[in-house]
Structures are given as C-alpha cells and as structure tokens.
C-alpha cells in the first residue's frame, strides 16, 4: 500500500490551465499511457465534440506527483473527456487510493467522509463500453 501526504486539488474549466508538458508527464507516470489521453488528443476531442461543462481535476502531492481527471458534466452526469469516441480512457497519472479519493471529493466532499457516515452513503459506479452498455458495476 502506498501512503502519500495530503494533496492539493484544483479544478479548471479550460485545457489552457494545465500545461501540456505537465499533463503528458503525469500521463507517462500512470498505467495507461496512450495517445487518447495526451493533452493534444483530449483538447482536440473537447474542441470538436465537447458538450456541457468541462471540469479538469488536478491533484498534486507535496512530492510533486500530479494526477489529472478530465471530465465533462452533461445532463447531471460526469463523463471522461473522450467518452463515446476514444479508447482506453482513464485517470491520468498514478492510480492509488489517495488519487481516487481526491477526485471523488471534488464532486461531493461528503461522499467519502469517514467522520459521520462511513459505509452508509449510497454510491454506484458503472463501467460502460463504447456502445454505452454496462460491462461492470459496483454498488454500495
């Protein structure tokens, strides 16, 4: 298990807020280093197909490790940028519990709170294939 120090989380509504070199360095440090997650591809996809509100979540640890979660919000749901037209979409950078928690807390700070409702907050995460069919689901 990797233990990390607290991280700073920023949210942005523009690709210009995250330099391409920072983005691509984070991509190279994660398990899914594919063209569909590069800054250039993600930006081109958003400029062409983007809808709703862009929400880029950037988490930075004290040691400089950066993780990025590029989402857009449409119809009350969050989607990874590139959904519906790109393969191998994923979080960008390290995939430890610390990073995932930082992303979840961006959407709802209380969702993963352990101080008053540990294990009681409803949560459903669905993994969809390119056709929009559910291929896996975790419900709590």
Descriptive key words:
140 residues, alpha+beta, 4-stranded antiparallel β-sheet, 3 helices
What does the average pLDDT come to?
78
Following the backbone from N to C, one meets helices and strands in this order, namely: EHHEEEHEE
In helices, the fraction of residues equals: 10-25%
Structural class: alpha+beta
**N-end to C-end Cα span:** 23 Å
> Helical region count?
3
Rounded to the nearest angstrom, the radius of gyration is: 15 Å
Shape: globular
- The strands making up the biggest β-sheet line up spatially as 1-2-3-4
Bin the strand percentage: 25-35%
Number of strands: 6
Question: In words, what does this structure look like?
Answer:
With 140 residues, the chain is an alpha+beta fold. The protein has one domain. Helix content is 23%, strand content 28%. It has three helices and six strands; from the N terminus they run E-H-H-E-E-E-H-E-E. The strands form two sheets. A four-stranded antiparallel β-sheet has the order 1-2-3-4, sandwiched between helices. Strands 5-6 form a two-stranded antiparallel sheet. A hairpin with a 5-residue loop joins strand 5 and strand 6. The longest helix is centred in the first third of the chain and has 11 residues. It is globular and about 40 Å long. The mean pLDDT is 78.
Short account of what is shown:
The chain is built from three helices and six strands, in the order βααβββαββ.
Give the topology, please.
Layout: E1 7-12, H1 20-29, H2 39-49, E2 53-61, E3 66-74, E4 77-80, H3 97-107, E5 124-128, E6 134-139
Antiparallel strand pairs: 1-2, 2-3, 3-4, 5-6
């Amino acid at each position: 298990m990797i233990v990390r120090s607290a991280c700073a989380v920023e949210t942005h509504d523009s690709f210009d807020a995250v330099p391409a070199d920072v983005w691509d360095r984070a991509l190279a440090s994660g398990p899914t280093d594919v063209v569909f997650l590069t800054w250039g591809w993600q930006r081109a996809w958003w400029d062409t197909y983007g809808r709703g509100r862009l929400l880029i979540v950037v988490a930075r640890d004290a040691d400089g490790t950066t993780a990025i979660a590029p989402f857009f919000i449409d119809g009350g749901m969050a989607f990874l940028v590139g959904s519906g037209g790109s393969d191998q979409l994923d979080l960008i950078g390290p995939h430890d519990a610390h990073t995932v928690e930082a992303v979840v807390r961006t959407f709802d700070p209380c969702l993963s709170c352990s101080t008053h409702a540990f294990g009681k907050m409803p949560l459903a995460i669905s993994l969809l294939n390119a056709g929009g069919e559910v291929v896996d689901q975790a419900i709590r």
